[in-house]
Amino acid sequence: MLKDVTLGQFFPGDTVVHRLDPRTKLILVIVYIVALFAAKTYAAYALVMIVLIVCVSLSQIRFTTIMKGVKPILIVILITGILNLFFTQGEHVIFRLWKLTMTWEGVRTAALMILRLIMLINGTFLLTYTTSPIALTDGLELLLSPLKKLRFPVHELAMMMSIALRFIPTLIEETDKIMSAQKARGADFDTGGIVQRAKAMLPLLVPLFVSAFRRADELSVAMESRCYHGGEGRTRMKKLTFARRDFGALILGAVFLAAVFALNRVWK
Amino acid sequence: MDPIIKTEKLTHVYGAGTPFEHTAIDGIDFEAERGEFIGIIGHTGSGKSTFIQHLNGLIKPTSGRVLLDGHDIFETKERTRETRFRVGLVFQYPEYQLFEETVYKDISFGPKNMKLSEREIDERVREAAGFAGLSEDTFEKSPFDLSGGQKRRTAIAGVMAMRPEVLIFDEPTAGLDPSGCKELMTNIMNYREKTGTTIIMVSHSMEDVARTADRLLVFKNAHIVMQGSPSDVFSHVAELKTMGLTVPRVTLVALRLRELGLPIPKDIYTVEHLKNAIVQLREEGYHA
Amino acid sequence: MDSIIKTESLTYAYRSVEDEHPRVVLQGLDLEIERGTFVAILGHNGSGKSTLAKHFNGILLPLGGKVYVEGIDTSVEETMLEVRKRVGMVFQNPDNQLVANVVEEDVAFAPENLGYPPEEIRMRVDDALRIVGMYDMREHAPHLLSGGQKQRVAIAGVLAMSPKCVVFDEPTAMLDPQGRQDVIRTIRQLRDEMNVTVVLITHHMEETIHADRVVVMSDGKIVVDGPPKKVFPNVEYMREQGLDVPETVDILYELDKCGFHYRLDALSVDECAREILTAFTGAGA
User: Fold this and answer.
1) What interface predicted TM-score (ipTM) does this complex get?
2) Residues on chain B touching A202 (C-beta within 8 angstroms)
3) Do B113 and A188 make contact, defined as CB atoms within 8 angstroms?
4) From start to end of chain C, where are the E strands?
């Protein structure tokens, strides 16, 4: 059932990883991604992987759970792998078949690329698994707040994100309900060709859009009734504060990034 | 006579094997006679909604069977699909499922899915609109321009147009104003009288089901805990209250009168009943 | 009269794009709501009740006439927040008025908008949640609550502004009997224990029997205004308005037609039973 689908799932817990300030975690994920793409040597890759494994272990989230995040984009990963496998120029040819050439360089690049993508997803999922959506949007808003000076709508963006998160379960439930209602009138969502199926979606999509607009309308009235007038002068009940562990984590992050660059030079 | 629809040990478990496992209905045995009007009451989460969605095959049971005219509706895919047309289901707030450009087209959505002829469809649309209390000058309007009450009638006509043998309503009067409620209930009663359709109605309005149903089912925690005629069910005031349900206020008045010493029968659940009981007392020359 | 809300010949019309004539929904309406009272507003669909309610906190602004909240003109932009924090509003669909995906974060929304310091917000949130009986569920996600619970969270979200008046626009229409009872109990508690002025728009006649005053609207005008004991005995008139009367009044009305001479103003079950009894104890007919 659609209800069972969860997006941006959060697993509450009480580990160091959970307790870190969301801003720290956002910065560290960026550091991690930079390091992942900067890594050029086996040694650098190994370091990134070790750091990932340590972080996941600290979060007490099972590795199988973390790997589940890879599933939806498995095809993208495979295609990237195959493209790299055959289109990498190299001297050590393994075999030639018609116009396709496979080289040792190709195998190496493909393997590293797949590994990189998987680790990229693992890292970002660790963030969403250990940080509540609210903390995440709060962290993002605060991190981006310097951009407010450039008239960038930081508050509005964060508010939109958190409202979207709030309404995802409601809209999923609604989709489920409308689908059932149309099926009760004999609608068929599962059979037929592409055109037929696209047409069959109309009885689902029209009511869904109408309802989403109605909800948006009612929500905006309710928000205004509760004195919402944009981000100006707005305070928060829960203030995010940096603890000592956050500074520690950020220093470790910097050391990690430096180490990756160093390993890139040392091992060629 | 054989029941038109019947369930045997019907059980449904959501999220089996996950930490969120939840038994919505548990071993429900149920039968409806042809032409019967059955009211279902019970608080939110008691399993009513899950139950009615089994009756037209929208939800598959975890175990147990649903029999329509003696045949298992999940036997083949074709039979399940056919069941959708023979057992109509009007969801709560059905106006939120309207999608076509005109009222006429929206009502004909069901019959079209049944692959009927143009003429047959036209006949059914007009008939259903009449039953639902919708005038034909709305046919070319967009359903989104109608009033709330008319939208609901359009959606109900859309299900009636399939000429189902069993018609299930989930809270058909929710959110309507008092005169809207009354008119819609009258429409449904007339429809039943003229077509002989079996009606199953889930309702939070005890007054509505008290007046109309032949038999009431009370759902609680995945089970049917009470059933019988409205007079049977509403005589269990105390039990209903502990289930978070109410009884018609007139039943409470009758109860209070009995406490005050007036010999009023126990099974009072409409204003009409209480009136008759009291008029009769006067005719008997009763004096307290 | 110490009025908290006052409208003076309030007029409003919706403009539709196609029609040349705007649809008039409020026609020169005068209404005063006294501080600390419980006022129920009834009327058939389309009678203008919700439009009127949206004027009480400046969501809609009058096309003609004025609306004052504690003397503040709602059409003055600068004092809009002063109006909105005095008059809170709870709507029909609980799903469409909850903003956050944690109960306590949602209740904090209004005080956050008003710029209170964090400690004070915490206090207001905890107090509001205790009043509606949802404190133990403060860390839950709203979409996992029942309709009645969601609606109580919405009430807490309004109470966190410490409003002087709360307007309820069909708050029980989407709830089951249990949820309905809980919400009505909370509404009565606001008036009785916290001296909050309550305006309740509803289609359920039974919910108005504890009101101090019932206002009936039709075609954008007030057609009846008085205490429920005076309003409901006009059974035929109420039905002409597309409304109904409590069953307790209905039964007395029906018996009255059969030659019993009853007062028709019984609102509680006990009052009704005792009135019926008079016919058999010699005191009545």
Assistant:
1) 0.91
2) 99
3) yes
4) 3-14, 23-34, 38-42, 64-69, 72-73, 87-90, 165-169, 197-201, 213-218, 221-226
Classify residue B81: in a domain, yes or no: no
Contact between residue B212 and residue B201 where contact means Cβ atoms under 8 Å apart: yes
Chain C nearest-CA distance from A263, in A, is: 44
- Binary contact (B84, A207; C-beta < 8 A): no
Q: What is the mean pLDDT of chain C?
A: 92
Q: Mean of the pLDDT values across residues C218-227?
A: 94
Any chains having at least 3 CB pairs less than 8 A from chain C are A, B
Q: Do B113 and A185 touch (CB under 8 A)?
A: yes
Average pLDDT over residues B9-31: 88
Q: Distance between CA atoms of B128 and B147, rounded to whole angstroms? A: 19
Q: How far is C107 from chain B (nearest CA, A)?
A: 24
Q: Evaluate whether residue B87 is within a structural domain.
A: no
Residue-level length of chain A: 268
How many B×C Cβ pairs under 8 Å?
114
B175 and B154 inside one domain: no
Contacts of B221 (CB under 8 A, 6+ apart): B46, B47
CATH code assigned to C39-61+74-231: 3.40.50.300
C-beta atoms of C112 and A132 within 8 A:
no
SS (H, E, C) A69-137: CCHHHHHHHHHHHHHHHHHCCCCCEEEEECCEEEEHHHHHHHHHHHHHHHHHHHHHHHHHHHCCHHHHH
The mean pLDDT value for A95-114 works out to 83
Q: Which of B13, B82, B97, B109 to mutate to test the interface with A (most CBs of A within 10 A)?
A: B97
- How far apart CA B186 and CA B193 sit, in angstroms, is 11
Same domain (yes/no): B24, B55? yes
Domain boundaries, chain A: 13-131+240-268, 159-237
pLDDT in tens, C238-276: 999 999 999 999 999 999 999 999 999 999 999 999 999
Touching chains, A (3+ CB pairs < 8 A):
B, C
- Is B92 part of any domain? no
Kindly state whether residue B237 falls inside one of the protein's structural domains: no
Structure tokens at A53: 């494994």
- Selecting from C205, C270, C280 the residue whose C-beta is nearest the C-beta of B286 gives C280
In a shared domain, residues B159 and B110: yes
From A1, A185, A206, residue closest to B158, measured CB to CB: A185
Q: pLDDT tens digits for B202-230?
A: 998 888 898 899 999 999 999 999 999 99
Q: Do B91 and A181 touch (CB under 8 A)?
A: yes
Q: Do C280 and B257 touch (CB under 8 A)?
A: no
B224 and B261 share one domain: no
The rounded percent of chain A whose pLDDT value lies above 90 is 39
- A-chain CB neighbours of B159 within 8 Å are 184-185
* CA dihedral sign of residues A87, A91, A92, A93: positive
State the Cα–Cα distance between residues A5 and C195, nearest whole angstrom.
Answer: 45
The arithmetic mean of pLDDT across residues C139-157, rounded, is 92
pLDDT digits (tens, 9 = 90+) for A117-153: 999 999 998 998 888 888 888 898 889 988 888 888 8
Picking from C92, C269, C277, the nearest residue to B288 by CB comes out as C277
Q: Which domain holds residue B204?
A: 1-75+166-230
Question: A134 vs C89: CB contact, 8 Å cut-off?
Answer: no
Q: Is B241 left (phi over 0), alpha (psi -120 to 50) or beta?
A: alpha
